[in-house]
Amino acid sequence: MRKLALLLIFVLMPALAKVVIINSNDWRFVLLSMEYAHYQGGDVIFLITESQADIIAKNLMGDDLLVMEDRSGPIVKDYDYYLKKFYGLDPEKKDFRDYRDLQEFLLKVLTPEALFVASTIEPENTLISVPLAYRKKGVVLFPSSSLFSRLPDFSDVYLVGSIQRDYRRELLSVAALLEKEVKIIDQGSPYSNSLALLDEWGGSPERLYLSTGGFLEPTLLDGKYPLVLVGRDSYNKGFIDVLRRLDIDTVFVIGTELMDVGRRIRDDSDKEIRVIVKYGETYTAAGYAGTIFALSVYRVPIPQPNVTVTSVLYDSEDAKLYVRYTNLGDGLAYVSTITRIARDGVTLTSITDDEIFLLWPGDELIRVYSIDLTDYGLNNLDAVIDARYGRYEDFLVDVLDRTIPITVTRVVDRSSISVERATYDGTILRVYVHNDGAVTAYVPGQVTLLLDGGNELFQLSGVKLSPGRTGVLQLRIRLDDTDLENNQFVDVFLKYGERQDLLVNVLKSRVQLEIVKLRLELLAMPILALLLILLVMTVVSRMRRRRYYRAGRRIRRFQKAIIGTLRRRRRVRR
Amino acid sequence: MGKIGRIALCLAIFALLVYFVPRKVSAIGGASNDTYVAETYTPINGSIDTTAGTIYTYNVSTQEKTYRWVGLWGNVTGSIRLQTASATFYYWPLSTVTAGSILYATTDATGVDPTYFYLTNNTYLNQADAAYGYSTSVLDSITNTYTGSGNFQSPSMDNPVVTNTTTVDAWTNYFIRKVSGNIATTDDIVWAVSIDPQQTAFNGELADYELLIPENEEVGDGEGTVTTYYLWIELN
After folding, report:
1. Is B73–A290 a contact, with Cβ atoms under 8 angstroms apart?
2. Rounded to whole angstroms, how far apart are CA atoms A6 and A51?
3. Residue A431 · residue A405 · CB < 8 Å
4. Any idea which architecture A307-404 has in CATH?
5. CB of B222 within 8 A of CB of A13?
6. Percent of chain A with pLDDT over 90
7. What integer is the mean pLDDT of A217-245?
8. How many CA atoms lie within 13 A of A41 on its CB side?
9. Residue A371's closest chain B neighbor by CA?
10. For chain B, what is the radius of gyration of the CA atoms?
11. What is the number of alpha carbons within 13 Å of residue A260 lying toward its C-beta?
12. Does B55 touch chain A (CB under 8 A)?
């Protein structure tokens, strides 16, 4: 355990002037703390685990220590007290309720000239913004309503990546009132955004940091050079040309897992571009000296796709090849594939899928290709899948290279469906699908909507359809008038088949979106029930009042009979 | 009928109207269905880039040290794996790091840039000893260890710089200044070795490099204090 903890230690040299120790489970808190440390001139240490925090404590020295603690999720609660009690240190402590609280603190104590707003759900966009923010003496912050009132304080305002629509509109409205220009950097993927940010750098930076954007690391965020994203396995198509066009002579590749990517850049640039990889660290205390460990980083939670091929079937009667892809990761995947047909390692032919297709997390998709393999003989054929995939359509940098035997079989599917109509009632988008075939059909699907100028894909609920029946695939979504105007026709993509585990058919349909009235009839019955209750209460009330009235009359009659004429009460006027 | 009764009656009529009047559709839509098959195939042998395979051979470095030095040695030209805290390993395939690549070690977390490498001599050796807290008079001080002199030139440098060196078995180690001025802290120094594959190391085994880096564990001084070096490789 102690050995493992040692892996995570950062620079603890006695010469350090100031050390900012970040004590949080939340990457947003860590990032904001790093920004604070940058402007305070301190070195940064992340606490990652309790055991690592203990090792850190043993090796801290000096008086200029600052603990930034996240009360909502510290690694070690009251770490400053821990340092005092067990190691005799006297650190300063700044604790915050959460990252939002820290953000408000930064807005108070720092006087940044530029503001970069990036979404918390796309951490890469946050990371790529940091170097430019530092260059412009600014900060990268997360969406917050308190930023509206601070807009006049910033000379430059940037929105980077996808920002929640309502927030973006509100911020732009406020900026328009203030006649403040807001630059929107939203080119699709964080990779494209990182290139777009280079245009704001001011001339060629000549040097770049390259990384995946999946972790925080001191070098990456020192602000010396811009950060551009690469994949774990590869870099984007045309990336070398981009580097040449930008006159980049040196790239610093940060990350142990990126040695291969560095090698490729060096080779593919004909060794014109200098490649230096920060890949490891070593702790040279007694007993642990000399062992090289992977670079210590603070991981950022980014959904990762993990695409694999689970089976390849060939139906010789229909002359069709069925390749089943599955996404085992937690991030959606755009996939581009080439399938080679090989025997004993020798390629016989190849199939290029001319479309980049989408695989949702946990989903699978069967791609069907018409190809006659009988000329090659059907025995011992392999499918060699060479696929590139990624979370963004313009950033396919993960690689799948897999060889799998082709199973020759008969694939029979008699299902047939059609899309009848699509409706939207203000809350739910419905796609009506009819089963035209003679067998039950399983139908999941997706719909593409044009929102804020870009196409976005949404997963529809799946449906099982008996022969001759019509079913509804639904999506709960809020669309305003502009959205409805832009989506008079929508593209529906349906997979279907008579076997739930073998949806071999695909139907693409462009369908007019009908706008239907709100279904007020759903409110009618509760209103009627309420009214009925009101009526009953009214009647009962009247009956009770009449009863009391009659009782009063009887009492007065009895009084008259017993004591004679009632004396009238005189009002005393003052 | 009282006031409440009249309101109730109006609401009831409204609710009944809503219930019985059929809802209207403002647009009548239609659908065009196309059966879709994604396919284009090339019925000839194609040229396809494939990813290099991964070789799961273990070979990392180990150590030999005095109170003032640590020796790194190991292989990088073959496959290599590095351990992380989560007990996962990184593997590099064969030929990722080739001969002539340079391994740098520095305590500076932020970077190594060969464009800003500067010469070294005895003056800077003395400054380095001071930065590490060594007396120059001790037998294994930096001054008394990096006693040689030679040109250092990485794959990307146009011109070499004159540096102090020491030879460790088959490998020359370089003491380089990474600031233009005097050496004030250990962060101002880079220790470097050129990768020379499959040479005989101090223990008789084959290795790709050996690199001697200072570590102050003098009693009463740096003893027990962990020092972190960051390792960079400039690819040839």
Report:
1. yes
2. 9
3. no
4. Sandwich (2.60)
5. no
6. 55
7. 90
8. 3
9. B41
10. 34
11. 22
12. no
Whether the pLDDT of residue A238 is over 80: the answer is yes
Tokens standing for B46? 């194609």
Q: Is there a contact between A11 and B109 if contact means CB atoms under 8 Å apart? A: yes
Shortest CA distance from B214: residue in chain A: A284
CA distance A52 to A2: 8
Q: Where are the beta strands (DSSP E) in A103-220?
A: 114-118, 138-141, 156-160, 182-185, 207-211, 215-216
Distance from CA of B199 to the nearest CA of A (A): 19
B73 interfaces chain A, CB cutoff of 8 Å: yes
Cβ–Cβ below 8 Å for B113 and A292: no
Query: For chain B, what percent of residues have pLDDT higher than 90?
Result: 32
Question: Is B84–A523 a contact, with Cβ atoms under 8 angstroms apart?
Answer: no
Q: What is the pLDDT of residue B19?
A: 57
CA distance A367 to A362: 16
Q: What are the tokens at A345?
A: 């390692």
Of A219-223, B14-18, B172-176, the poorest mean pLDDT is in B14-18
- Closest CB to B235: pick one of A6, A277, A369: A277
Structural domain A417-515, CATH architecture: Sandwich (2.60)
Asked if residue A123 has pLDDT above 70, the reply is yes
Contact A274 B65 (CB under 8 A): no
- The answer to whether the CB atoms of A293 and B42 lie below 8 A apart is no
Q: What angle separates helix A521-563 from helix B3-20, to the nearest 10 degrees?
A: 160
Nearest by CB to residue B33, choosing from A12, A370, A507, is A507
Domain spans of chain A? 1-110, 307-404, 417-515, 526-574
Question: What is the reported pLDDT for A290?
Answer: 60
Q: What is the pLDDT of residues B161-207, one digit of tens each?
A: 999 999 988 999 999 999 999 999 999 999 999 999 888 988 788 88
Query: In this predicted structure, what is the pLDDT of residue B52?
Result: 20
Residue B1 contacts A where some CB pair is shorter than 8 Å: no
Q: pLDDT tens across A424-480, in order?
A: 988 899 999 999 999 999 999 889 998 877 788 888 888 899 999 999 999 998 888
- Yes or no, beta carbons of A349 and B44 under 8 Å apart: yes
At A24-60, the pLDDT tens digits run 999 999 999 999 999 988 888 889 888 878 878 877 7
DSSP, res A417: E
Please tell me whether residue B204 adopts helix, strand or coil conformation: coil
State the maximum Cα–Cα separation within chain B, in Å, rounded to a whole number: 113
A-chain residues near B27 (CB < 8 A): 488, 512-515
Residue of B4, B55, B90 to mutate for A, most A C-beta atoms under 10 A: B90
- Among the partner-chain residues B29, B65, B230, the one whose CB lies closest to the CB of A512 is B29
User: How far is A515 from chain B, CA to nearest CA, in Å?
Assistant: 6
Asked if the C-beta of B227 comes within 8 angstroms of chain A's C-beta atoms, the answer is yes
C-beta atoms of B63 and A508 within 8 A: no
Fold equal for A307-404 and A417-515 = yes
Region class of B95: left (phi > 0), else alpha (psi between -120 and 50), else beta: left
| C-alpha span between A27 and A49 (Å, rounded) | 14
Counting other chains too, the contacts that A486-491 makes at CB distance below 8 Å and 24 or more residues apart are A486/A450, A486/A451, A487/A449, A487/A450, A487/A513, A488/A512, A488/A513, A488/B27, A489/A513, A490/A422, A490/A429, A490/A447, A490/A448, A490/A449, A491/A447, A491/A448
Query: Cβ of B226 and A10 within 8 Å?
Result: no
Name the 3-class secondary structure at B98. coil
Nearest by CB to A516, from B2, B25, B131: name it: B25
Q: Which two tokens stand for residue A133?
A: 């923010």
A270: buried, middle or exposed (CB in 10 Å: 19+, 13-18, 0-12)? exposed
Residue closest to B192 by CA, chosen among B164, B223, B228? B164
> What is the domain class of A1-110 according to CATH?
alpha beta
